Amino acid sequence: MAVVRLGAATAVTRTAAVAGSVALVALALSACGGDAPDLSEPTGSASVVPTAPTEARGQLAGLAAAAKDRRMVAFYTYSAPGRADRTVAVTLAGDGSWRIDVPGSAHGGAVDLAMSAGPDGRVYQCALPSQNWPGSQCVRVGDREHAVPSKVDPQVQHPFTDWLDVLIDRRAALSVAAVAPLAGARGSCFSLEFTAASVVTPVDAGIYCFDPDGTLTALVADFGRLTLASPPAPAPPSVPLPGPVVAAAALTIAAPPPPPTPTASPSA
Q1: What's the domain count of the chain?
Q2: Domain of 79: which CATH number?
């Protein structure tokens, strides 16, 4: 019986010692100003919660991706320095073919052009019939691997086609900032500049405005200004070339030089 009482007393003594040690550790932590770590929630758990991109670059990339999938027929007012306003017709068809009609865009404004491409990505410059041009004809001027030469390029088609890939690419050396909407524009507008010097820039710096569905509502770029003139209409399944493909030189944007003046031959 004495041994049992001694064992009980020893157990009580050990329990008291452990409790005292815990109390001393707690007192030491309190004296140092530290709190015991809370292990009820994993440290840093909030950092793994995904968040949607809200910065201007991400917003523009998302709208450009929507624009690349946009299929519509729309009309834009095209303003350029030294020229009267013109109406540009944009057709983005269901099969990926497209056509952009730009009046007075060749030979110094004398000839109407349509830039067009099929689902295969081959780009054609098509002269449209007018008083200065007898009929429709198309000349291949580029494809997905080869850009349209600048001397035959009216440029108006780019914001609806290949420039969208650059706006989507987050690796492109672009600086983007949200800006107030342009006059007559809807949706969100962004100022775009380049952050790296380059001999050839893939898109024009300027201001781009998009509706949430990807419709370009306004643009100010080097070639001029586009403003959506009316609500877009549904797109056709496909859009054909406006004329036959011919083996000829594409029309230059600038007026061709005048023919040489004939000179009188010297008399004998």
Answers
A1: 1
A2: 2.50.20
pLDDT of residue 187: 95
- Whether 9 maps to a domain, the answer reads no
Q: Can you give the pLDDT at residue 9?
A: 38
What pLDDT is recorded for position 230? 94
Regions of the chain where pLDDT drops below 50: 1-53, 268
- Tokens 């952009």 label which residue? 100
What's the confidence (pLDDT) of residue 259? 76
Query: Angle CA(228)–CA(231)–CA(233) in degrees, nearest 5?
Result: 115
Give the separation between CA 261 and CA 243, rounded to whole angstroms: 34
- Residue type for 207, please? I
Determine the Cα–Cα distance for residues 238 and 114; give it in Å rounded to an integer. 16
What CA–CA distance (Å, rounded) separates 171 from 202? 13
Provide the CA 229 distance to its chain's centre, in angstroms. 21
Q: What is the DSSP string of 36-93?
A: ---TTS-TTGGGGS-----SHHHHHHHHHHHHHT--EEEEEEEE-TTS--EEEEEEE-
Place of tokens 């061709």: 256
100 located within any domain: yes
Please report, as a single letter, which amino acid is at residue 46.
A
* Residue 174 identity (one-letter amino acid): L
* Residue 67, both tokens: 């624009």
Domain assignment present for residue 75? The answer is: yes
pLDDT of amino acid 117: 98
Identify the domain containing residue 173 by its residue range: 56-228
The pLDDT, as a whole number, for residue 178 is 96
Does residue 85 belong to any structural domain of this protein? yes
Using DSSP bridges, classify how beta strands 86-92 and 216-221 pair: parallel, antiparallel or unpaired.
unpaired
